[in-house]
Amino acid sequence: MKDRPVREGRVLPVEPNDFKTKNALYLPENARYDDLLTLSDDADIGKAINDAMELVEQQSAQLVGILPKTYTSFKNDLLRELLRIFNNKTLDEVGGDLIGRIYEYFLSKFAPAVASDDGVFFTPKSLVQMIVNVIEPKRGVLLDPACGSGGMFVQTGDFVNENGISANTTMTFFGQEKVEYNAKLCLMNMAVHGLNGIIKSGDEANTFYNDAHNLVGQCDYVMANPPFNVDKVKSESAYNAGRLPFGLSGVNSKKELSNANYLWISYFYAYLNETGRAGFVMAASATDSGGKDREIRKQLIESRSVDVMLSVGNNFFYTKSLPCTLWFFDRAKIDENRDSALFIDARNYYTVVDRTLNEWSIWQLKNLNAIVWLYRGETKKYSNLLEEYKKETTERLCGLYLLMENDLELLERFADPLRGIKAEIESTLNKASALQELYHLNGLLQKYTSVLNEQTKSLISYGDGLDKDEAKTYVQSVSKSISTWAQFKKAVSSNVESTIAEINACRTIIKEAKWLTEKFDDGTYQDVLGLCKRASLSEIEEKNYSLTPGAYVGVAPVIETEDNFPERMVEIHNELRALQTEANDLMDIISANFEGLGL
């Protein structure tokens, strides 16, 4: 409203077309929370919400027949309470794509309930973000032939919009999804994020047998997380459907493919135009599989389109613990990289979310992306990232000072050791002219945390030993707004908790910045043992055309220290699980081969 034009002293009302320019859905009055909440107690709220869904669908051709309209199944009291929860001004004040974040949260929660055992599962956000970051979509045609709930489209839209371009005006999104339920999720997800797309579902969208959009050789970008290790694909139908520039992979005695991984890989390549890029998730075993797969892989490597191969560790998926590999094709690599490929082994580089789930943090995503930038000679992007690290660290520390001041005030007589450390942190920050000079802060922040915990325990012990009147006198001498020792202790604990959380955030950023600059300080790509390797075509040929990053990057020496011992134990545990998974995959392949021989 603040930007609305004024005519004859009157602010022009907002109209549906104004929403279209913002890539947003216009909601008629009867489809708004405020209107629905004014319904009388005896009204049929379920029917009113169903009608609201109809009105929303009328605003978007791609939503017609997609939104749920079964709200009459629920009681009025429940529906009214849900409407009240979402009609909350606090949600508006949070900012950003809040509804999209809520959607993604629930998507991750119900993924275990809807993901089946046929290789279909939802793609974690950090893997999608990594693919988008490396592909760098800007404008043109994007296809996801196994689009699921639409995560590739959503992240692409965010990436393009963040660069000051409207994704809906510069990108055309096409998707295929065999499971109609997932296709509906995709369309809703795109609508929530203000995106338009053409999504085909059902039998015509079975990518093994259909090119639903006729896009062979026409795509600027292909992104996908296809189902892994699918078997029983009819070889004749797949062959007749085309898109196999390197031929068909192995067929068994039943004229079926025992593993369709290389069907997908061939499709992704076939859809690209002469300058196209592809990024996709694939089972880790596909980088080194033999037989016809190896021959297809050899031709693919010799086409000089393989750009980057990135190994991902266990527990990145919501419902599966298996490792995987991210593949990246580029049909128009720079001349310096035309006869090589970049291999990155990131199996031991991640953030633990909980016991069963890992992810890449925003800074880890940036660091892995920086390796690709340097490999491509894009040193300016690397320099900008270092500046971003310095800016973020400085700004967070400035915000941290306010929490530290509260610590000193609340801890009072126990605060002297903290004052000295805080002064040293300020001095280091003020003298730092380069990012590397800020790394000393990590040790100081750790020291501050340790001393803060010690002094807080001393304060609590001191206060708990006072009688009621003494405690009240002490509290009043420190804070006029707190009257009891219990309230004061709660305030101290809350502030200390906030301080430590912010210190940990600062330390994480400093740690990731140090991880990057220790390896590529001057902004020039170099091979790093155990992490990355630029391998020539001849080197790949020597490895029997393997595309497994671990075969090229080697193993970095591990210097055991007290600090990295827990991390090393996690690495060892993950290596064991990876070997177990690989053994299971090999058993499946052996069983499939026996089946193909009719044994």
UniProtKB/TrEMBL annotation:
Q: What is its EC number?
A: 2.1.1.72
Q: Name one GO biological process term.
A: methylation
Print the keywords alphabetically. Methyltransferase, Restriction system, S-adenosyl-L-methionine, Transferase
Query: Could you name the domain of life of the organism this protein comes from?
Result: Bacteria
Task: Please provide an example of a Pfam family that matches this protein in its UniProt record.
Answer: N6_Mtase
Reactions catalysed? a 2'-deoxyadenosine in DNA + S-adenosyl-L-methionine = an N(6)-methyl-2'-deoxyadenosine in DNA + S-adenosyl-L-homocysteine + H(+)
Q: Does the keyword Methyltransferase apply?
A: yes
Give the N6 adenine-specific DNA methyltransferase N-terminal domain ranges: 21-85
Spell out the molecular function terms from Gene Ontology: site-specific DNA-methyltransferase (adenine-specific) activity
Q: Where is the DNA methylase adenine-specific domain?
A: 96-370
Q: Which family does it belong to?
A: Belongs to the N(4)/N(6)-methyltransferase family.
Q: What is this protein called?
A: site-specific DNA-methyltransferase (adenine-specific)
